[in-house]
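In this supplementary section we document a worked example of the pipeline. Step one takes a protein sequence of length 234 as its only input; no multiple sequence alignment statistics are reported here. Step two produces a three-dimensional model, which step three serialises into structure tokens for compact storage. The input and output of this example are shown verbatim.
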Amino acid sequence: MTSSRGVIVTGGTGALGRAVVLHLLRAGSRVAVPYRGEAAWDALRDAAGPGALLYGQAADMALPATASSFVEAAARFLEVVDGVAACAGAFAMGGTLEKAPVEEWDGMLRANLAPAWATARAALPYLLKQGGSLVFVGSRTAETAGAGASAYAVAKSGVHALTRVLALENKARGVRVNAILPGIIDTPDNRKAMPDADRKAWASPESLARVVAFLLSPDSAPTTGALVPVDAAR
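The serialised model returned by step three reads:
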């Protein structure tokens, strides 16, 4: 059996997920990533470099059957599943509740809450085998704001509730469950969308990746059920 740790990272081709993947690979972990687009996967693989202990498979992690199939294949590559970083998600701000497009509600639930639930359900049997850690990505918006982004805030609130529930259900079984709560992440898309914003308090994907890696690691062993704010200045 491999001596390196095995981690699944959903949303691994996005800005935050990519930073998590690259951080884990540099630390010597084996990493498995579901992806939706070939170009994004190719870019991640190129960034990881030749010889990276990286596995990828096209998968829609909002679908329970597809999530189970991916996790099964990932577990074969990883040999053990020590951790899961559920970074898949999306943001939309369509206006107040009565003005936002009707489709935004289902869209935000499907993009943010459904993959978290389906990924956790598929991965838990593997995490339980040797004890592991599951880290979700929530949002400070869901705790402190949300006006104009009700669907997003509600979806992320669901992720927060899921974190607490799974932490309680699995504490005695050796699996820890936590979530990070970013504010605005310093990504090219956010810079483009908010060109005049003060970016001093924006968190870089790399800084958030270090927190995720800590929560995945045995160094954070006493911590479960935590919603960790990560929206301070870098």
